[in-house]
Amino acid sequence: MVSECDVPLVVQTRHQQTGRSVVASGVEYSLRKWSCTLLDGRPRASNAAHLPYIKEVEFVLHETFDNRHRVVRRPPFRVEEEGWGEFDLVVIVHFVNCPEPLQFIHDLNFHEGELYEKKHHLVRPRPPP
């Protein structure tokens, strides 16, 4: 029997208006510069951005972005972009000592303030001793 472990991760989202706008389908939208950073979600993590148990993180952006599939291979595991719309950001986490990556969806939105954090719990096989 393979034992499992819960891996609490946090996605920290920051965004701010750029002062510029774009017109899409006849509607004007404010452009925002935004970033999403994966952090350690354990309560007493000394350095939340360190994440030594993660090998790489893939961020899959909305289909309207150029180069929508971004791979980050070392901390900070962050994606930064500029845009006007909200979307479901796919986050694929590759762990050290774990053959299969795990993924989750992060709701990237501009309604929860300029800085917000969402906790996500991933369950993965416990690494061998």
From TrEMBL:
Its main location: nucleus. The keyword DNA repair applies. The keyword Heme does not apply. It is found in: Nucleus; Cytoplasm. Pfam families: YEATS (PF03366). InterPro entries: YEAST_sf, YEATS, YEATS_dom. Gene3D superfamilies: YEATS domain (2.60.40.1970). Residues 1-129 form the YEATS domain. Signal peptide: none annotated. One of its GO terms (biological process) is chromatin organization. Keywords: Activator, Chromatin regulator, Coiled coil, Cytoplasm, DNA damage, DNA repair, Nucleus, Transcription, Transcription regulation. GO terms for cellular component: cytoplasm; Swr1 complex. It comes from the Eukaryota. Component of the SWR1 complex which mediates the ATP-dependent exchange of histone H2A for an H2A variant leading to transcriptional regulation of selected genes by chromatin remodeling. Component of the NuA4 histone acetyltransferase complex which is involved in transcriptional activation of selected genes principally by acetylation of nucleosomal histones H4 and H2A. The NuA4 complex is also involved in DNA repair. Yaf9 may also be required for viability in conditions in which the structural integrity of the spindle is compromised. Component of the SWR1 chromatin-remodeling complex and of the NuA4 histone acetyltransferase complex. Belongs to the YAF9 family. The coiled-coil domain is required for assembly into the NuA4 complex. This is Protein AF-9 homolog. The gene is tfg3.
